[in-house]
Amino acid sequence: MSDVVQHTTWEMVEGAMERLDAAMAGIDALDESARTKTLELKEALEDFYGATLRQIVRVLKVSPHGEPMREQLLMDPMVATAFSLRGLVQPTLAQEVVALLELVRPQLSLQGAEVVLASVDASRVKLRCSGSAAGCGAGGLQRELTELILSRIEGCDEVVFEEADSGAEIANHVADQAVALKRFVTIGLVSELPESRCVPVTVGTMSLILVKVEGKVSCFRNECAHQGRSLEGAQIEDCTLTCRWHGFRFDAHSGEGITIPGVDLEVVPLRIRDDRIQVASPW
Ligand code: FES
């Protein structure tokens, strides 16, 4: 008998999540009595599986071989998803950095910069860069990236940069990281999102704002580009989002600054699957 463990895949996780989403949508369509009973059953099953997973974590914690077993288990996408949905795994520093780099990749690409995680050593993060993020003119961009990482990721004390040997090397890294991060969470339904309103959503530790204008959905980090205050309560009119604090205005589709061009909202990439609005999970 083979002792090689067959891992599940992120595609399988995604398929399972889609089935769950579809089943939840079906429950919503039931009459009240049937919906109540079905939700009770769902809660009982969740309690049962939650208690089971917590017990597995406790046993692994006290077992002499528990830590390597836990690490091996968490390499499996289905297991990692089940544990993270229950809040039983914390992202590693490397995972947090990779997730953050994926979030800012569109802006970096616009500036002709490519940056990937090279290594993590305790609280020191080494990034590998090319394009405008490398060379003698890259100081400003590297400082911005360093500030972003230090301000967003608690366990990181130092960020250093090294130049990639070639563009191809960094492109392979980006592809690997994209695969590693191919985990999406549903954060809302297009059909249920009100038009021209800022709807707050939380994903892990990220606070986001969803906006639907003329049927097009956009997602931004919930921080105004002026002083970083929450965008909840911002007014949206004619595709212009106006922050309630000091009236800075932004394009509600792209997040681009209108009051001060270049002072833009931070866009969070999303995808729409059927009616579901999904963003890459930070872990
Ligand atoms: S914080 Fe939004 S306009 Fe000042």
Q: How is this structure best summarized?
A:
Helices cover 40% and strands 24% of the residues. It has helices at 10-28, 32-62, 66-74, 77-85, 93-110, 139-152, 167-180, and strands spanning 113-121, 124-131, 158-163, 184-189, 198-203, 206-213, 216-221, 235-237, 240-242, 249-251, 270-273, 276-280.
Describe the 3D structure:
The chain is α+β, with helices and mostly antiparallel strands. Strand 5 and strand 6 form a beta hairpin. The chain folds into 3 domains: 76 residues, no CATH class; 88 residues, GMP Synthetase, Chain A, domain 3 (2-Layer Sandwich), CATH 3.30.300; 97 residues, Rieske [2Fe-2S] iron-sulphur domain (Rieske Iron-sulfur Protein, 3-layer Sandwich), CATH 2.102.10. Helix 2 crosses helix 3. Helix content is 40%, strand content 24%. The protein is flat. The mean pLDDT is 82. The strands form 4 sheets. It has a 3-stranded mixed sheet. A 3-stranded antiparallel sheet has the order 4-12-11, with helices on one face. It has a 3-stranded antiparallel sheet with strand order 5-6-7, with no helix packed on it. The protein contains 7 helices and 12 strands. The protein binds FE2/S2 (inorganic) cluster (FES).
